[in-house]
What does this fold into?
Amino acid sequence: MKRANDLSTETIRDALTTRRLGRPALYFPSIGSTNDELLARAAAGATEGLLAVADAQTAGRGRLERSWWAPPGSSLLMSLLLRPPIPPSRAGQLTMCLGLAAVEGIEAVTGLRPALKWPNDLLLDGSKLGGMLSELRLAGERLDYAVLGLGLNVNLAFDGSGVPADIAATAISLSGALGRPVDRLPLLVAILARCEAWYDRLLGGASPHRAWADRLDTLGRAIAVALPNGTIYGVATGVTPEGALLVRDAAGRLQTVWAGDVTTVRDTVASR
It folds into this structure.
C-alpha cells in the first residue's frame, strides 16, 4: 500500500505546529540511519530540536543492533535531538515522552488506539506497529544529549514477496489496520506536537511515568524476560519512575529489570 511521497523538507517545515521540536528539520530520500546522522551532528554541536526524517534507511536498526526492515516510502522513520538539563537517572523518561507522543498522535490522526510494550515497542491488536531507539551521550556525570528514534509501520503490506517471515508473522501497519493508505505528514506533525507537550512537562519537573504505565500492554501479563544470564518467568506488576520493569517471579520475588526481551507467556491478563 505504498503511496506517493508526502514528505519533504518544505512540507515538514510548513506543517509543523511545534515551537522548537523539528526546528530545523532535515529530510533524506535515503540515509544510513537517522539516529546515526543526529548523533554525528550532535557531537559537532547541533542544537536541540533538530529532526531527521528519511524515506528509506540502509542501516536502520532497533534495540540490540537488530536491523529495521522498512521498504522506501512505507514507514515514518525519524530521529530527534534533545539536550535536556536533567540527570542521567531520568533519561528513560525521554523515551516515555516519545512513546506517549506516538500512541497519542496515531490515535488523533487515525482513530486507532495503539499500546506500548515495555521497553520501547508500539503494538496494535497485539502485533508490532513500531519501535523506538534512544541513544544517550554523557559528559562526565551529566547528560549531554539524547537522540530519540522512531520507526512506524504506516503503508506496509506483509503478505508480499520479500517480506521477512518473522516480520510477516508479528507485524502490523496502519494501512493494514485501516484498509487504506495513510499520509505520513499528519502523523509526523501530531507526534511531534504531543512530544513537545510531554517534553515541556518533563522539563517543568513533572514525570510521564504514570501516563506511560497506563499505556503499557505488558503490565499484568505473565511474561518471560530474556536476559544475558538466563530467563525470568513471572508477572509484570509495574514499572519504576525511571522506566525499569518490575516482575514478580515464580518464587514470589520482585525483580527489577532494566533491559531485556519480553514475550507474553499466555494471553490471559493477570490481575494487577
